[in-house]
């Protein structure tokens, strides 16, 4: 942790712990790389709660749910929101935290039967802060027409459930290659995107080996943004199909 007034948040689509082409298990490599980053709060997407087929197929694929496995490895508290269930298992989003973690709700933002999506709502309590930070970990659809409905669902949820004075983070894989969510969702909720704030633009995170699309986001409200960066190059280019991004956030 940087100091008592700020913390590091990292958001990462881990591709179910598999390499970009699904040929190798990358759990150990992801965990070791994240250990170096040492985030205080970690928002993960495509977290495998269970996959019986891969358990049998790969010796190095843990029997344990991935959010629990990463939690133990990184010494972080963990919470999981199941979004998609199928014959051999299920996957979803996870929030992990060095601070006390209070899971609240897994918001269903599914708009078609082919893509089960959700937003995991947790609260974390940094030491010596007057109020907890709301963390929303999101994974949105591939098509813009679906995302427009999901922006609305997230906006409605935030308006009805989150205290407007509370520090708020909305992070995750927005699949927003058209770069419209900043206009449609962030402005609607009075949120600032960390990379737009620090760099004046969104930075590419996909595909990890040669990133050209800016799919991932960190939005905040009632927090200061001290810095924001994408984790590029090795080992990240070989661990997942997305690159992780981090921001140092603090009190206003």
Automatic annotation (TrEMBL):
<dbReference type="Pfam" id="PF03372">
    <property type="entry name" value="Exo_endo_phos"/>
</dbReference>
<keyword id="KW-0378">Hydrolase</keyword>
<dbReference type="InterPro" id="IPR036691">
    <property type="entry name" value="Endo/exonu/phosph_ase_sf"/>
</dbReference>
<dbReference type="GO" id="GO:0004519">
    <property type="term" value="F:endonuclease activity"/>
</dbReference>
<dbReference type="InterPro" id="IPR051916">
    <property type="entry name" value="GPI-anchor_lipid_remodeler"/>
</dbReference>
<keyword id="KW-0540">Nuclease</keyword>
<dbReference type="InterPro" id="IPR005135">
    <property type="entry name" value="Endo/exonuclease/phosphatase"/>
</dbReference>
<keyword id="KW-0255">Endonuclease</keyword>
<protein>
    <submittedName>
        <fullName>Endonuclease/exonuclease/phosphatase family protein</fullName>
    </submittedName>
</protein>
<feature type="domain" description="Endonuclease/exonuclease/phosphatase">
    <location>
        <begin position="11"/>
        <end position="242"/>
    </location>
</feature>
């Amino acid at each position: 942790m940087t100091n008592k007034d700020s913390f590091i948040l990292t958001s990462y689509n881990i591709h179910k712990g598999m390499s970009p082409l699904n040929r190798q298990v990358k759990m150990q490599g992801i965990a070791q790389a994240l250990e170096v980053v040492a985030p205080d709060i970690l928002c993960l997407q495509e977290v495998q709660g269970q996959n019986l087929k891969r358990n049998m197929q790969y010796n190095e694929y843990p029997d344990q749910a991935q959010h629990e496995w990463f939690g133990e490895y990184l010494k972080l508290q963990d919470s999981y929101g199941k979004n998609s269930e199928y014959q051999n298992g299920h996957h979803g989003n996870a929030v992990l935290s060095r601070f006390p973690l209070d899971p609240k709700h897994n918001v269903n933002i599914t708009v078609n039967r082919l893509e089960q999506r959700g937003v995991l709502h947790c609260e974390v309590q940094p030491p010596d802060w007057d109020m907890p930070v709301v963390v929303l970990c999101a994974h949105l659809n591939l098509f813009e027409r679906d995302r427009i409905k999901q922006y609305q669902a997230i906006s409605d949820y935030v308006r009805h459930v989150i205290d407007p004075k509370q520090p708020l983070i909305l992070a995750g894989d927005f699949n927003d290659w058209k770069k419209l969510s900043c206009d449609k969702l962030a402005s609607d909720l009075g949120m600032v995107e960390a990379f737009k704030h620090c760099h004046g633009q969104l930075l590419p995170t996909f595909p990890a080996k040669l990133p050209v699309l800016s799919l991932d986001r960190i939005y905040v409200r009632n927090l200061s943004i001290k810095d924001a960066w994408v984790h590029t190059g090795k080992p990240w280019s070989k661990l997942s199909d997305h690159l992780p991004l981090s921001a140092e956030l603090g009190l206003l």
